[in-house]
Specification:
Layout (H helix, E strand, L loop, with lengths): L20 H18 L1 H10 L9 E6 L5 H12 L4 E7 L2 H13 L5 E5 L11 E7 L7 H14 E10 L3 H14 L3 H13 L3 H10 L6 E5 L3 E7 L14 E2 L15
Parallel strand pairs: 1-2, 1-4, 2-3, 4-5, 6-8
Antiparallel strand pairs: 5-7, 6-7
Amino acid sequence: MLRLNQRVLESELMDQPGIDPAVHIKALQGIGRVNRISRIDRLLWKRLRTFQFDRDTPLRILDLACGGGDVLLKLADRATREKVPFVFEGADLSPTAVQYAQATAELRGLNNIRFFQHDALHHSLSRKYDVVMSSLFMHHLSNSQAVRLLERMAAAATRGILLDDLIRSPLGYILAWCGVRLLTRSRMVHFDGPISVKAAYRIAEVRALAGRAGLENIVIDCHWPQRFLLTWRAPDKENGQNSIAGEVFESGCLADAMPLPLAS
């Protein structure tokens, strides 16, 4: 039986340098279809609205390692339709992904979003945002890199961070293996999808990494299809406390096996 007790961090095809742009874009489109099925944009929208203290004041949002920007584009489109003053920026290491995302935004006529190239692991952000978020990036990283990512996200966010990723579980592996083959013809996604689950974290491991990054009172919600959303709010400056209780909601998650201690 597939247990996945330990993380197996393998090199994914999309992480390789020198990818043919056409092949890369096809893979980004495939991931976009997977994200539509997960409906992560709806969950992120609801959570982002909780960071909006004043409906008339723009909320500045950054998506780190945004890939083709499909999630951010859906959020920007909804903000435009509903006349919500959200301003979005997406950052990714890949120039192909950034160019593709920006071209898509321009094609859709969205003026509340822009994309730029940035190395999230080796360079700190030069400006502050209200909310910094990231989706499907953490599982690409070593434990020490994941801690660094969380630290940099928190340092750049004045109100909080949102981090969404896969959960390592047998069901998650099966869903990934079958889902990517149903939703896309990209061989790159067919290969990367299942090994992404093998490299993903379990909920207790995510909490341990967040603790190492100095994030207190995080909230973790589990959602379809075997993914989690971590929410952290910056401490209230008046009393030094986060504005949310530190609870973990694990309904719908398969976190059945005890995680092993996290190494660097």
